[in-house]
């Protein structure tokens, strides 16, 4: 039985067992884990706090070496780890390997950043004085991650935290602990001092609550639901801790009359259905102008119906299962709600029975929707896409921005005028032109606006804004 990692050791197993089941075949148990509770989490926080002073002033080469080791091993084992990820989460094998590859490069990127942490020296307006502006670690960082990217999201939080000299207490999602454990096992052999990195596997009500409420945790980074994120922000603010939240999206993809039809349909299919639609950047709302609407709908439905749904590790599968029974039920409930509200179900909408007992759902397309419907305003987080018809670009822009979220936004057009205007006027943190709304490089900032994000950006050099504090130091030369 696999266990949590605290203060440099995998701790003794307890009796509270968590079974990690394969969503492609729930009779396949991927791993068994021993859950920890509040006591063990507090021990992990204490270990991190004890290690923080030394690690916070460690040599950049030491940080580089550890992060580079982690990144190299992840990349060397990408096929093995990708298969494990696909088996436990349900995304296809190519997607699983791709996610692991991204995780490896994230650690490699932040290995490089560790030896590039800079500062400024300024002349003071007071004669004879100089000013140094430097960055210092915040201390102990609590990291709470979701199930949809079991290794990439932990990596893009853990790597910068360690890079900038912080200690980590990491809680992975209970639905997908195997990838997190594999990552922790690699980290355990990277040469980090005891207590610098800790992983605790357990329930959010105990483990997550202990991390969020601890005065020794100076920053919390969380990816997950809006309601949980709002609670975390309030609790962190109450004790003056930093918070970084990524909370989802309802991302629009506009298709204009002048778009390349084949390209636009491929962009919509990839953005809406790949990774089973279980991406916060998925393009779940497609907004099509009147002149191309009929042709788009016809081809989009054809290509959606041609998608091959099946077990994640099957080489013929294009769309894997939904990650869990509860997520499948949520998807089916939204499909039912959409029909009750008057949306026109063009294809899909049903659970699929297969030889293996898994959580399979037909890729689903709704038309004749309006922006007041719940299916257009609330995040479904599954292979469900709505298509609406609008008169022109101005109407499309207004509908795209009419959402409580603002993570990613896309447009398909051959017009430079409209592409440039949309990049400036889309109310989202990330904008894609003739590309799926899902998919962001590992070295650039990730994040949104409105209800999608709170706090500094993730990834790239902008990660320093969350994982460090700025210090201004004066010196007078006698």
From TrEMBL:
<dbReference type="InterPro" id="IPR016163">
    <property type="entry name" value="Ald_DH_C"/>
</dbReference>
<dbReference type="InterPro" id="IPR016162">
    <property type="entry name" value="Ald_DH_N"/>
</dbReference>
<dbReference type="GO" id="GO:0004029">
    <property type="term" value="F:aldehyde dehydrogenase (NAD+) activity"/>
</dbReference>
<feature type="active site">
    <location>
        <position position="246"/>
    </location>
</feature>
<dbReference type="InterPro" id="IPR016160">
    <property type="entry name" value="Ald_DH_CS_CYS"/>
</dbReference>
<protein>
    <submittedName>
        <fullName>Aldehyde dehydrogenase (NAD+)</fullName>
        <ecNumber>1.2.1.3</ecNumber>
    </submittedName>
</protein>
<keyword id="KW-0560">Oxidoreductase</keyword>
<dbReference type="Pfam" id="PF00171">
    <property type="entry name" value="Aldedh"/>
</dbReference>
<comment type="similarity">
    <text>Belongs to the aldehyde dehydrogenase family.</text>
</comment>
<dbReference type="InterPro" id="IPR015590">
    <property type="entry name" value="Aldehyde_DH_dom"/>
</dbReference>
<dbReference type="InterPro" id="IPR016161">
    <property type="entry name" value="Ald_DH/histidinol_DH"/>
</dbReference>
<dbReference type="InterPro" id="IPR029510">
    <property type="entry name" value="Ald_DH_CS_GLU"/>
</dbReference>
<feature type="domain" description="Aldehyde dehydrogenase">
    <location>
        <begin position="15"/>
        <end position="472"/>
    </location>
</feature>
């Amino acid at each position: 039985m696999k266990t949590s990692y605290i203060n440099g050791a995998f701790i003794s197993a307890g009796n509270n067992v968590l079974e990690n089941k394969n969503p492609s075949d729930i009779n396949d148990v991927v791993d068994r884990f021993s859950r920890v509770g509040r006591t063990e989490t507090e021990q992990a926080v204490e270990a991190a706090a004890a290690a923080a002073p030394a690690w916070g002033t460690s040599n950049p080469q030491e940080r580089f070496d550890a992060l580079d080791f982690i990144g190299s091993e992840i990349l060397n084992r990408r096929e093995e780890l990708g298969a494990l990820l696909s088996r436990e989460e349900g995304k296809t094998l190519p997607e699983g390997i791709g996610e692991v590859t991204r995780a490896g490069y994230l650690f490699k990127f932040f290995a490089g950043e560790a030896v590039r942490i800079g500062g400024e020296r300024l002349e003071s307006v007071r004669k004879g004085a100089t000013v140094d502006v430097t960055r210092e670690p915040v201390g102990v960082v609590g990291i709470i991650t979701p199930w949809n990217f079991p290794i990439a999201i932990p990596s893009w939080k853990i790597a910068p935290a360690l890079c900038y000299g912080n200690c980590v207490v990491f809680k992975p999602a209970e639905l997908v602990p195997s990838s997190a454990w594999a990552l922790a096992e690699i980290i355990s052999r990277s040469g980090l001092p005891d207590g610098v990195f800790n992983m605790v596997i357990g329930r959010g009500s105990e483990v997550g609550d202990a991390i969020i409420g601890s005065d020794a945790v100076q920053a919390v980074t969380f990816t997950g639901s809006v309601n949980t994120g709002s609670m975390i922000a309030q609790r962190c603010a109450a004790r003056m801790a930093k918070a970084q939240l990524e909370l989802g999206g309802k991302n629009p993809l506009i298709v204009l009359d002048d778009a390349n039809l084949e390209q636009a349909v491929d962009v919509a299919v990839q953005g809406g259905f790949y990774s089973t639609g279980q991406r916060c950047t998925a393009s779940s709302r497609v907004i099509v102008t009147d002149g191309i609407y009929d042709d788009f709908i016809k081809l989009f439905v054809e290509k959606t119906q041609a998608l091959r749904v099946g077990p994640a590790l099957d080489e013929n599968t294009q769309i894997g299962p939904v990650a869990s029974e509860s997520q499948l039920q949520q998807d089916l409930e939204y499909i039912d709600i959409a029909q009750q509200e008057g949306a026109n179900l063009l294809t899909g909408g049903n659970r699929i029975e297969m030889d293996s007992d898994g959580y399979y759902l037909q890729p689903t397309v709704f038309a004749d929707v309006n922006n007041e419907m719940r299916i257009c305003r609330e995040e479904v987080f599954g292979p469900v896409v709505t298509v609406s018809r609008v008169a022109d670009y101005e109407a499309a822009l207004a509908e795209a921005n009419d959402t409580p979220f603002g993570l990613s936004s896309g447009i398909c057009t051959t017009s430079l005028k409209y592409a440039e205007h949309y990049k400036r006027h889309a109310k989202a943190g990330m904008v894609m032109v003739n590309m799926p709304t899902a998919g962001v490089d590992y070295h650039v900032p990730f994040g949104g606006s409105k209800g999608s994000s709170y706090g500094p950006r993730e990834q790239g050099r902008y990660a320093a804004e969350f994982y460090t504090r700025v210090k201004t130091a004066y010196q007078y030369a006698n």
